């Protein structure tokens, strides 16, 4: 199946270059005609990945990331010349899956695209072949990327889903940060360690809505552990 990448980039030269090179790798590349409304072309193209610049006319990339996240869990890769740490943190907190600073090497961008697509859509590689996991009185739906308790349902991003799934599959055992990075991103050379920290923090915030704020613990210098809370196994 031809995978579609939706690129939101107002620099025509960069857009054309990305389009040309990605099409050589058999991706279909589309973009909005107007930067005042990207949601209609986004919905129409139904992409498997979004590449989003931050500095855009009218509304910035953070705004459009929020709009997309309201309706879709499609992976979003931020592309920006801004290198302030807060921009990276904001990008992750908004639901971004990765962040690449301009100027960039095309080989690095391509590696990130391929790794992002693998971790977003290769559910069959999970060790548990079932459709759901039970943990602390909740159900983790592996097909829909949600965690449920009673009538309450929390939607997870692809990164949050994989982190939680990996930790729960090894519940009550420590999973090292290096192991998480290798499983999530395949090649840790292309990953900022801060990205993992931000994703775990964001996952904990969502779990707190289900009363599970203490269910993922940090083992300093070792990694993370999904614990079984007393009375909630």
From TrEMBL:
Residues 130-228 form the OmpR/PhoB-type domain. It comes from the Bacteria. It holds the Pfam family Trans_reg_C. CDD domains: REC_OmpR_NsrR-like (cd18159), trans_reg_C (cd00383). The modification 4-aspartylphosphate is found at residue 53. The keyword Phosphoprotein applies. Coiled coil: none annotated. It is found in: Cytoplasm. SMART domains: REC (SM00448), Trans_reg_C (SM00862). Residues 4-117 form the Response regulatory domain. Keywords: Cytoplasm, DNA-binding, Phosphoprotein, Transcription, Transcription regulation, Two-component regulatory system. Residues 130-228 bind DNA. Signal peptide: none annotated. This is Response regulator transcription factor. It comes from Sporosarcina gallistercoris.
